[in-house]
Amino acid sequence: MLEPAKLKHRKQHRNRGAFSGRATKGAELAFGSVGLKTMETGEITARQLEAARRAMTHAVQRGGKIWIRIFPHTPVTKKAAEVPMGAGKGSIEYYSAVIKAGTLIFEMDGIDVPSAREALRLAGHKLPLKTRVVTRITH
Fold first, then answer.
1. What are the phi and psi torsion angles at 46 (to 5°)?
2. pTM for this structure?
3. Per-residue pLDDT tens over the stretch 77-92
4. Which end is more exposed in the chain, N or C (fewer Cβ atoms within 10 Å of the end residue's Cβ)?
5. Which residue has the higher pLDDT, 126 or 62?
6. pLDDT value at position 71?
7. Is residue 22 in a domain?
């Protein structure tokens, strides 16, 4: 699973104020010819990202090239069950990434477009956000 190798601060705020607007950076295909784009804003955990990547890799039988365009930098903490209020912040439970609407999550190249579209569709079902498969416009 993806997680940062080193952090300046182990625990941080989740910045849930960033849950609005559309993506300006990372909204265009940059590497591959087919990509998976989010249609809504939300959080994606490292586990969800890994599950989607595995589904995609399995669907294409390890063919082609896959780019993961996002990274879960934000640590999310959780307190143990039945712990009273106070006594500080909980321990790190998982890492997540805030994704704005329009962000590309995955890109693929090196395989035929129908296979890539199907693989990305399967990957989209593993994510908690609505997604759309986009292709590069070729003239």
1. -60, -35
2. 0.88
3. 999 999 988 889 999 9
4. C
5. 126
6. 96
7. no
Residues 6 or more apart whose CB falls under 8 angstroms from that of 11 comprise 75, 77, 89, 92
Across 70-93, b (16+ Cβ under 10 Å) vs e yields: bebebbbeeeeeeeeeeeeeeeee
Structure tokens at 102: 């329009």
In a domain, 16, yes or no: no
Q: Where do we find the tokens 């586990």?
A: 47
- Cα–Cα distance for residue pair 42/20, rounded to 1 Å: 9
Residue 124: how many CA atoms within 13 Å on its side-chain side?
Answer: 19
Lowest-pLDDT range of 11-20, 62-71, 112-121 = 11-20
What's the rounded Cα separation, in Å, for the pair 72 and 1? Answer: 10
Domain enclosing residue 57, as ranges: 29-80+88-135
Task: Tell me whether residue 20 is in a domain.
Answer: no
Query: Is residue 73 one of the residues assigned to a domain?
Result: yes
Rounded to a whole number of angstroms, the CA Rg of the chain reads 17
Question: What CATH code is carried by the domain that includes residue 58?
Answer: 3.90.1170.10
